[in-house]
Specification:
Length: about 300
Amino acid sequence: MWWGSLDPRISIREVGRRLRVDATTIWSRLRAWQRQGFLLGYSVVPNPTLFGAKLAGGSVRISDSRAKERFFRDFGLVEGAAFAVDQVGPWVVVMFVFETERGLQRSAGLTRRLPGVVEMQPCIPFHCPSTTLVPSRLDWRILETLHADPTGDLSKCARKLGISAKTFARRYNSLIRDCAVWSIPRLDFTQYRGATVARFLVWLGPQADAQRVLTKLEKSFPSYILLENQSGLPDTGSKIVPLLSLFLQMSSTGEVEDADRLIREVDGVVDVESYFPRRSFVYEDWFVDRLEKQTRQA
């Protein structure tokens, strides 16, 4: 949903094989999503851990829904701005890339000062997929090419770099496998025609066993879209906040209430917040700056 392992170049036949669904069905679904404006495209960015950086996220309350459009423009100017998700109502989820605690606090402070912002919850560093890959000079050039043309033909990308399609594909597959490149879909849920997508933030008590709660939620909601442990990273100096994130498809608001009640009954859960995403945003300036610096040095 957010990062890693999502390959926009994967063939429709391969998607069908993995899901055990006819390829024609996959093709029809993707085309329908694109026509209706739900699937806006993809952004391909390098994993920030390649630069020694981490991710942190929080929620921002906007004074008026009419002020949101300007907020999303202004937020892109904040150093470290990486992702944002508009929610139904006044709240917006924001995510930052940061290399130091001071840098994170500066980015959060600048966000609080943006026009229309009336409240901002503390930014929580959280676990995200990391990579141990040490990119070669060619890897950095491939990453830059992938960012510039997220869904382009691999052979065409290889010709731009002056290498064979086979070499490009081998290195590209290695980058995907080692989670060095994140392919992130840009989605507009206001255009989605189907079940409502709801996100539940599940807050745990200080003594709760997060893995046990995760296992319980997996059993309770086997068809979940995404279930993650977003508890704080202990090596950032920040207080660890036990937090899980759960995405579900709901056919009615009544189902949302039922899910909320079921989650609260799990031992260790102290609070649940439910949100309905409207649109996701990817801000690429931080990634582009680092990529350009690496390719120049290489």
